[in-house]
Design a protein that fits this description.
Number of strands: 7
Distance between the termini: 38 Å
Radius of gyration: 19 Å
Number of helices: 9
Helix content: 40-55%
Strand order of the largest sheet: 3-2-1-4-5-7-6
Structural class: alpha/beta
Shape: elongated
């Protein structure tokens, strides 16, 4: 099974032999690949809709993976106590924050989270650091869209507003994909200035341009 570029990046952030939960696992490609390579790990995946859950369960069964529990459940409400690493990908940052905040007591045994929000990465970083996690590594990829993948571990670090918005590691390393994304953003913002914007909106756009240029 060949993982997509995004799933491969997530997989590479997982620690071997950890007990991983893939929340909203879609067809289960990530957890299946991890289970095949980590036979001693205890794994969990779920979906909250019957159709996707049925496909997920059937896909797990095809590979005779006895170390994977499959659940029809929402978010992390059914997360087993043995899980020490959570993956959440393929949904907006606001929803990821809601999922974690709604059952925050379930995180007591969770040392690591690998999160890949489609939107609002800033809010995800702010929330995770507010509940006692810090950023271990970050990746940005282009796979039809730009995606940021962030690995958190339990602990405390200090971050500023630019760290939350652009990523403390990403803006330090400035890989080519990172540069390309923000060059595109600069061009889009400059184009926006040609429109008939309100004074307040124009100030917002100019401020955002300055923030990006400060990187």
């Amino acid at each position: 099974m060949k993982l997509s570029h995004r799933l491969s990046e997530i997989y590479d952030m997982l620690e071997q032999n950890s007990n991983v939960a893939d929340i909203g696992a879609d067809h289960g490609q990530l957890i299946i690949e991890f289970a095949k390579q980590n036979k001693n790990s205890k794994l969990f995946c779920n979906d909250n809709k019957v159709g996707p859950f049925t496909i997920l369960k059937n896909n797990i069964s095809k590979y005779n993976l006895t170390n994977v529990d499959v659940s029809l459940s929402s978010g992390i409400s059914a997360l087993p106590n043995y899980i020490n690493c959570i993956v959440i990908a393929g949904m907006g940052g606001d929803l990821i924050v809601k999922i974690l905040n709604d059952d925050i007591d379930k995180l007591k045994n969770v040392e690591t989270l690998v999160l890949a929000p489609n939107t609002n990465t800033k809010e995800v970083r702010k929330f995770m650091t507010s509940i006692g996690y810090y950023i271990v590594s970050e990746s940005i990829i282009f796979d039809k869209h730009y995606y940021e993948i962030i690995k958190f571990k339990k602990g405390q670090r200090q971050y500023d507003d630019l760290d939350y918005e652009f990523g403390p590691i990403l803006r330090k390393e400035k890989c080519e994909t990172f540069k390309n994304k923000y060059l595109e953003d600069i061009n889009s913002l400059k184009e926006l200035l040609h429109n008939n914007l309100s004074k307040e909106r124009k100030e917002e756009v100019l401020n955002q341009l300055e923030r990006i240029k400060s990187l």
